[in-house]
Amino acid sequence: MIMFYVYVLESIKNNNLYIGYTTDLVSRIKEHNQGLNFSTKPEKPWKCIYYEACFNKNDAKRREKYLKTTQGQRLLKRRLKEYFYSKKNY
Length: 90
Description:
- The chain is an alpha+beta fold.
- It has one domain: GIY-YIG endonuclease (3-Layer(aba) Sandwich).
- 42% of the residues lie in helices and 26% in strands.
- It has a 3-stranded antiparallel sheet.
- The radius of gyration is 13 Å and the shape is globular.
- The model has no long low-confidence stretch (mean pLDDT 96).
């Protein structure tokens, strides 16, 4: 069974977030860090800070689209509250 992953990357360079979906999470992160994705190349390197797995491609695409909205961004910030809070205290 093929899984579809919705993922959130954080730029180590400037802390910007990138949201996407893929069937091969490990390879996709490597592509981002090798500069093979035009939209993420200037902000590499990236690290994966969150992902979700779906059985259905359309569910993953819908979730990705939602997480890119203002409401979705708020959800991510609540979901990863401790992660973001711990970064401020370094």
